[in-house]
Amino acid sequence: MIPLCFALGACGLMAPTPAPHGEVQGASTSGTELAQSDVNRIATLGMHDNLDSLYRLLDKLYRRNPAEWKKTATNRELAIKRVRDAIESRQPWPELQGKHDIQALSLALTPDFSGDRAAAFIYGAADMIIVAHGGKTKFYLIDSFDAQYLYNAARNMEIASWILNSRKNAAGQPLLLSNDISESEHNISFEREFGKIIARIDLLAEMTTEKYRRAGISYLQNLVGGTFLQFLPVR
Asked: Which UniProt keywords apply (predicted)?
């Protein structure tokens, strides 16, 4: 028995240590949260995460398609900053000819688009998502959401991802190199990032629908409770 314990102990010491996977990071608390409902707060965090996902996708696209950032900037980091600044300040992207929302996204994915396609694509996707959220990136008690618009935005992201992977230019080349599944490489990191964005928007759409349904149920519960769940006098 003792030798067995020593053997098990030795195996335990020799077992490889699991790789760290990090831990959940909560956002810092601010006074503005007092003006936010639970749904407002989740929508604000979701928007922040979705924009971060788009910036990661832009970085990935620039790394695989360096010719794109060279059309508008002297280095990749500066190109990303310019797109980010335009998105967060709600400024139009010059190469999109004043177009916004799905019109901007459609133009960025046309085969004959000659500008920085990666920048235009990410800008168009971000603008479409923001428009679906009522044109805002932070949300408070006075704000509300349209569940159908959010649902449509999630489907638009699915369509955009599919077009990016399948549409080709006049020379028969992909509009932008993204996912790569071949004998030498298996890279689906783009697909995973798109999936995160779609899931966050879908969840908010469901929560928006559930919010009004639960409000009605809570009203009925309070109504019934007020009538039948009162304590009875004992003296």
From this structure: Lipoprotein
| Per-residue pLDDT tens digits for 96-132 | 999 999 999 999 999 999 999 999 999 999 999 999 9
Residues 6 or more apart whose CB falls under 8 angstroms from that of 149 comprise 131, 132, 133
Helix (H, G, I), strand (E, B) or coil at 73: coil
Query: Can you list the residues of the chain whose pLDDT is less than 50?
Result: 8, 12-13
CA separation for the pair 202, 147 (Å, rounded): 9
pTM given for the model: 0.79
Tokens found for residue 49:
């995460």
CB atoms within 10 A of CB 223: 10
Helix (H) or strand (E) holding 186: strand 186-187
Q: Which amino acid is at 77?
A: E
Do the beta carbons of residue 93 and residue 72 sit within 8 Å? Answer: no
Q: Which one-letter amino acid corresponds to residue 209?
A: T
Distance, in Å, from the CA atom of 115 to the CA atom of 119, rounded to the nearest integer, reads: 9
Burial tier of 45 (Cβ tally within 10 Å: 0-12, 13-18, 19+): middle
Angle at 132 between CA 129 and CA 134, to 5 degrees: 115
